Amino acid sequence: MIGDDMEQNVPYARIDGFGPPEGFKAGWHVTRDKVALRYMSWGEDVARARAGQCRGTLVLTHGRTEFIEKYYEVIDELLSRGFAVFTFDWRGQGLSWRPLEDRFKGHVRDFGEHVEDMREMLAEHVTPNFPGPYFSMSHSMGGHANLRIAHDLPDAFEAMIFSAPMWGIQLGRGMILALTLAVARLNLMLGRAEAYVLGGAEQGIADEPFEGNKVTNDPGRFNRCMDLLRALPDLGLGAPTYGFFDVSMKSMGMASQADYLEAIKTPLLVVCGAQEQIADNQKIAQMMPHLTHGELVVVPESRHEILMEKDAARAAFWSAFDTFMTDR
């Protein structure tokens, strides 16, 4: 079923038994380059009604292919902990503006755009309307954008939580890695930056099977995401482009340098799954010693999407979150 915030004319998906927590507002933000980003929020009044207090505001951002609706359960858990919540679809996914005519191509022109989008969201929506202190929580690709935000906007957040951040990608080793990089370079030289990567297409829109997936061990939460995509197919996103691959590799390379990381002073909690098959846990572990205010927690029996995992893995994440956020 498709809902609509009548005041702002903002569509959103809901399915039987799973919709946005009560008290939300939705809207469109028009950026400096005149593109529209969809956002939803739950204010101080909602947090107080749920938890008897408001501990501040948490800005929640998502991974590649993800969208606001997928996080209704997580938002509900944050509200129950006393946090007001602001969340938005990154440009290029969800119902926000997409850069290519084929809306299902996963394409990013420059991760610096995400930093500037966050700067605008904070300045125009969050800090004028929501109480501090301000925190962020991000997943996967959003975790890469937020690492850059921690560096470029050092005063934006009091603390930041990362779920399986895209600080490195598992691309294989040796000859496999060399071949992958060579194919990407060739396609970029041929002007195919906006083409799907080899083997990619409009895959995984709403019919991806649970069997063999790399993101979660929980069939219920996996199929719930598929149901949301069937309810509102425009939320879907297919494979990345060669341009996305190129921009991502360059950005991750820059942000993994020791001096870049050592400049980040914001307290960080990084949570990874022990069964990770997408993000590069080894790379994350190599980066952590340079994040002098960072803490790493590894969750057993969790794949990439820890917050979409079985209850035991999710409980481990929330335990780490609650400990990290004590007295903040």
Adjacency order of strands in the biggest sheet: 3-4-6-5-7-8-9-10
Instruction: Let me know the CATH homologous superfamily.
Output: Alpha/Beta hydrolase fold, catalytic domain
Please give the oligomerization state of what you see. Answer: single chain
What proportion of the residues is helical, as a percent range?
A: 25-40%
CATH topology: Rossmann fold
How many β strands by DSSP? 10
Brief rundown of the structure:
With 328 residues, this protein is of the alpha/beta class. Helix content is 36%, strand content 17%.
Structure explained in plain terms:
It is a single chain. The chain has ten helices and ten strands. The chain is globular and about 55 Å long. The protein has one domain (2-325): 3-Layer(aba) Sandwich (Rossmann fold), CATH 3.40.50. α3 (112-129) crosses α4 (141-152) and α5 packs across α7. The termini are far apart. It has helices at 44-51, 72-80, 112-129, 141-152, 174-189, 219-231, 242-255, 258-262, 281-287, 311-325, and strands spanning 2-5, 10-13, 24-30, 36-42, 56-61, 83-88, 134-139, 159-163, 268-273, 294-299. By secondary structure, it is α/β, with parallel strands linked by helices. The protein has an eight-stranded mixed beta sheet, with helices on both faces. Strands 1-2 form a two-stranded antiparallel ribbon.
